[in-house]
Amino acid sequence: MSNIAPDARPERWLAAFALLVICLISLGNVVVRYTTDASFAFTEELSVFLLVVVTFAGAAVAARRHVHIRIELIEGLLPVRLRPVLYVLQWAASVLLLGLVVWYGALLAWEEYSWESLSPGLGYPTWIYLIWLPVLCLIIIGRLTQSVVERCRTCLQAGGEYES
């Protein structure tokens, strides 16, 4: 296996951009607060939304690079031929959980769209913020699938010399 980490470039760019915007609006808010004794009302709402984007985009990158927190003790104790079974079980549990988040997140976004709810700070429709949750979870599921295929293939090809 090569030493180059698998790439998740769109998610990396999305997370970096969201983090940059958080830094800029937070810095702008601090400067305005100290110079005028007032602050921008929208910064908290936008920062929380972007923090969720950073979190889920980062989770997709971690899934693609096989660096999610997991218990490797079981992996190390299993015979090499059984490790792909464990990888598939890990994948299935993750997909089940993320699938629930996709379903209920999409349901919540749809309800907010139907109710025409508006955000308190900016007055934007709340579904614009909420739709990102199921979309990013679907991306994570895709990256997890890429990861499990690669891990199983590499483990089987290398005769078990694969390090996770």
From TrEMBL:
Spans through the membrane: 12-34, 46-63, 84-106, 126-144
Pfam families attached to this UniProt entry: DctQ (PF04290)
Keyword NAD: no
Membrane topology annotation: Multi-pass membrane protein
Residue ranges constituting the Tripartite ATP-independent periplasmic transporters DctQ component domain according to the UniProt record: 22-153
Keywords linked to the UniProt accession: Cell inner membrane, Cell membrane, Membrane, Transmembrane, Transmembrane helix, Transport
Subcellular location per the Swiss-Prot or TrEMBL entry: Cell inner membrane
Assembly information from the UniProt record: The complex comprises the extracytoplasmic solute receptor protein and the two transmembrane proteins.
Family designation: Belongs to the TRAP transporter small permease family.
Reported function: Part of the tripartite ATP-independent periplasmic (TRAP) transport system.
Designated name of the protein: TRAP transporter small permease protein
